[in-house]
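tmp note - CARD8 protein
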Amino acid sequence: DQKEQVTPRRLSGGQHVVQLDTEGTYQCSLTGLIFEVTEAVKITYSLLSWSKYANLVEKPWIVGGPLFDVRCDSARALTSIQFPHSLCLSG
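out:
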């Protein structure tokens, strides 16, 4: 279960982008997101605020982790995303 660590390039608006050049499993060094891809792909992602979406979560469910917006230039190449259950934003 080898994951190559990748450090994203930061864009405006809190977005991050990684260009993955070949098939494999990659882990973002900043967020812990894990991407499994079958070919070269560019993935753009950002951390969203639950304040805008919290009213959509109905009891007994509760907000339990970070919320991400993930976009990929080739949806067929991105076979899985593993999301962290927690995220430390203190540095």
